[in-house]
Amino acid sequence: MSQIQNIQKLSNAELEEATPFNASWHQDYNDTAWVFIGRLPPEMNEMDILIMFSQYGVPQSLKLARDAETGESRRFAFLKYEDFKSAVLAVDNFNGYEIIPGSRIQVDHVRYKKYRYTDADDANIEWDKALKEEMEKDMATNKETATQAIEDKEEGEKSADEDVDEDLVDPMAGYLAGKKTDDRNHHHHHHHHHHKHHHHPAEEEGNQTSRDN
């Protein structure tokens, strides 16, 4: 039985028995958030792996093994998550996953020791350094995007409040001021002619409508 099948058998048995997380076989590796990824398609590069595995958490480090001379993928990698639970999810969901027809990847917990470079590894050192910088840049960009979204939302709400003030408060104030002026003029007119003028019901209703508008 292959290692892929061994891992699947363990996970399926726990699923059937409803094994609590604190009693899971995964707990044997609760001191590490590293996972081993094997049997990768040769065309998969670091960015492909990061995109795929970021579905279950935040990757913090990645090392794809490459041939020292050709730079071609050796089809296995080591990836570290931000926390252990992400590693558990990756193992449970990606082990045995068929990326391309007929090719299933292996994903398992691992206690990874960082590679010690030699003088002949200048290219690998530069590549890993560039990859790390890209990962950090992506994380920083995500945080900046989230912060900007919050600021834009607050600014939008503030602008909306200002628009309401301009559309409702100022026109109403102008209307009320005009109404008071009309009322004063109308009152002054009645003060001198009230004994000669009689309102028709329809005229009174029209005046009331005008005032209400």
Q: How would you concisely characterize the structure shown here?
A:
The protein is of the alpha+beta class.
How are the secondary structure elements laid out?
Blueprint: H1 3-17, E1 34-38, H2 46-53, E2 59-66, E3 73-81, H3 84-94, E4 98-100, E5 103-104, E6 106-109, H4 122-193, H5 201-212
Antiparallel strand pairs: 1-3, 1-6, 2-3, 4-5
Organism: Dekkera bruxellensis (Brettanomyces custersii)
Region (Disordered): 139-213
Pfam family, one: RRM_1
Please, could you describe this protein's structure?
There is one protein chain. By secondary structure, this protein is of the alpha+beta class. The chain folds into two domains: 113 residues, RRM (RNA recognition motif) domain (Alpha-Beta Plaits, 2-Layer Sandwich); 49 residues. 55% of the residues lie in helices and 15% in strands. It is built from five helices and six strands, in the order H-E-H-E-E-H-E-E-E-H-H. The strands form two sheets. The chain has a four-stranded antiparallel beta sheet. Strand 2 and strand 3 form a beta hairpin. The chain is globular and about 45 Å long. The C terminus is likely disordered.
